[in-house]
Amino acid sequence: MPAGVQLLAPETARAQAAGLSRSYRVNLTMLAVIALVTGGFLVFSTQALSVVRRRTEFAFLRAIGLARGELMRWLLAEGAIVGVVGGLAGVALGYGLAAAALKLLGGDLGAGYFAGISPRLAFEPAVAAVFLVLGVLAGMAGAWLPAREAAEVSPALALKAGGDATGLAGARRHPGRVLVTAVLAAAVCFAPAWQGIPLGGYVAVALLLAAGVFVLPQLAANLSALLAPLRAVPIALARARLAAVPGHVVVAGAGVLASAALAVAMAIMVASFRDSVDDWLARILPAELYVRGARAGSSGYFDAAAQARIAGTPGVARADFIRHDTVRLSADHPPVVLIARSLSPDGRELPLVGRQVKTNTPVWISEAVADLFGYAPGDTLRLPLAGAPHDFVVAGVWRDYARQSGAIMIPIERYRALSGDPLANDAALNLADGETASAVAARLRERFGAQTLELAQAGEIRAVSLRIFDRTFAVTYLLEAVAVVIGLFGVAASFAALAAARRREFGMLRHIGLTRRQVGLMLATEGALTAGAGALGGLAVGGAISLVLIEVVNRQSFHWSMDIRIPFASLAIFCLTLVLLAA
Questions:
Q1: Domain locations along the chain
Q2: What is the pTM of this model?
Q3: Which of 64, 90, 224, 356 meets the CB 3.0–4.6 Å disulfide criterion with 396?
């Protein structure tokens, strides 16, 4: 068969087309899973404090013959009931929000993957049942640790006065556990993707969240130490309380840490991605006006005569023409886009990353081609052009956010010499001094007719691209907001339950002279310290998770690299607001 021609079964083509959006869908699903984990922390908090409040009751039941296993199954069933209720509500809300999102944004949330398609919401009972089961499992997982502790506590100890306020007291500081978990998280980041899905990255995210929960008591102790110079009695009592019962920091702060970590990680990743896309657009759109042969992509073209007319249009100082085509490097992967354009010998016009090599037959590959096919600078790459194979040397790797299946840049002069193809799909126009893009565009429309050209200024393309970017990530902002609300609700529920469990303690404090205001200040201080520990832990864990998202998840899913940007001011305001709301 001629070079570049391959036989493929229809099933293979369909699978490759579906694979282009699979990573996008999987990553959205994993974000939803992280929000579900945050909900599991909320179940953990409420169930743990429910156990604290009912410890005397459980001890009495144990004393009259209730077995440990029966008590544990009872509490797990409570968690399952919470999961059923939450799962049913979640399925109903999820389908409602999905219907609204499809109506407002389309099936790709404005990303442009499925332009021209108006998808309809399909209710699948089997999928809804899976979501409901996930809710039940999250409820049971959140209830497991409190149930185990309730079953293991000695009835005699729990029946003592004050024994009902020491829940999870065994949650002490475990630096070794934190270190081991963090090392495991770093290790799994090096695992290769499984069928294009970065499972190692997702496991690393879970391990980092666990490490953050383990370090919460130490963070709370460090924050408490900062308040040591303050001699106010309520503050001293709050510090003593957190030092005596570090488990309550874990119970109340775990949800805050998880939600803050998700919000921080996504904020850093999205800010880094957006800035990188903005820089990339500036590099690949250096001209002032761009002209396309038709709205149908590579099917529209300019022949040699049309190219001469464009270049000769008054106001055009220089016209660079671009030719798009597709080539197959492997039957196992989708076609790669071949882009022929004017390039310097060193490819300085491209957003290059990594090392470059000098060669007389250069091509520059995108990061997706490097990852999917294993090419590196200096390797020989065989391209099928005009039915014949031609060898090139990979001169460098460039950053490309537009083509997930990969792209190859080749000097247009070399491409035309080998292929005999004189056509062009696009033109990049640099204008003469004093000319405006709108005036030159009007002259081009007069020459060619408005229906045969698509014209856009570089600024317009950039604005539209960033608007699509923002719409694409709108769902992540919603998930972040949901997670943060869940975390704050967890703190409120935790301290409400603690207040009910500590009525005798508050009565004693009032008896020895504390006012209601002082008791309230003590609780507010405890809440602020707990939320502060969760927010600080969320900052650290979120920063680590953002690195995993940028360097592992995005790279293995979409084959994109990006420059890291941390929005310090936004993160500081977010964490401060979180602490104030929790207090």
A1: 10-281+468-582, 294-452
A2: 0.80
A3: 356
